[in-house]
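tool_call: predict_structure(chain=1)
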Amino acid sequence: MKTLKLSLTVLGKYIICLLMCFFVTFSFIAVFSMFSLEMIGYEAAIFENEEATEPLEEYIHYYADGDDTKKAEAEAKKQIVVTREFADEFKGTPYIACHIISQTVSLILFVALMSSSLNKQGRADHNAVTCGRAKEDILKGLKVGLLPAGVSLASWVCLVLAKFGYFKAGLPIYSFLNYQFFGYQKLIFGSNTVATALSTGVLFLALLPVVITLAVCTVAYILGYKDISLYEKAVYKK
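tool_result:
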């Protein structure tokens, strides 16, 4: 029962981590886009008058093409032209830097949130075993991690079903339930926006979040049980 309770706690932190990583990634994309993207044109719709609901014509104008003669002609006829600017594709060095930084921050958040309770429980269990009040179970972290890893695995199954055309929402479900690895997803999925375009090799790579979730839970508990602090070892010297 204690293991199940701890597992539910870790699952709750897993969900919180997804939300935090979503806002972290969105924030980095917004900042990098603001400073790197340029407006390259606009979508235009020409209406007969202000009361018209259906456009007479719709077109796209790029600033690189020079003056928009269609817009000038329409305005000369007292017609209404509604425009909406659009930016260039988010790519190149800013795109890569954005996802590397956001992925690094997300991974740190993920490890910190997922490991805290397990590390603390490992220390408590070590004291209990030393005092003879409990039996040693060095794999408790692995058992606790089965629940959050199961969520990730279930999303992977949805992705596989989407790959073979059985479940259209498989890719977005996988993407959100593994949002702490969004940068990694962009790396393995590339520009593919539909699961049917993914290769079998990519599907196996998509299992990595499941493995890492189990590994973080297992190692965090063992480090706590053995009273090992990676932070102290990295910061302090004897």
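agent: The mean pLDDT is 90. Proceeding to next step.
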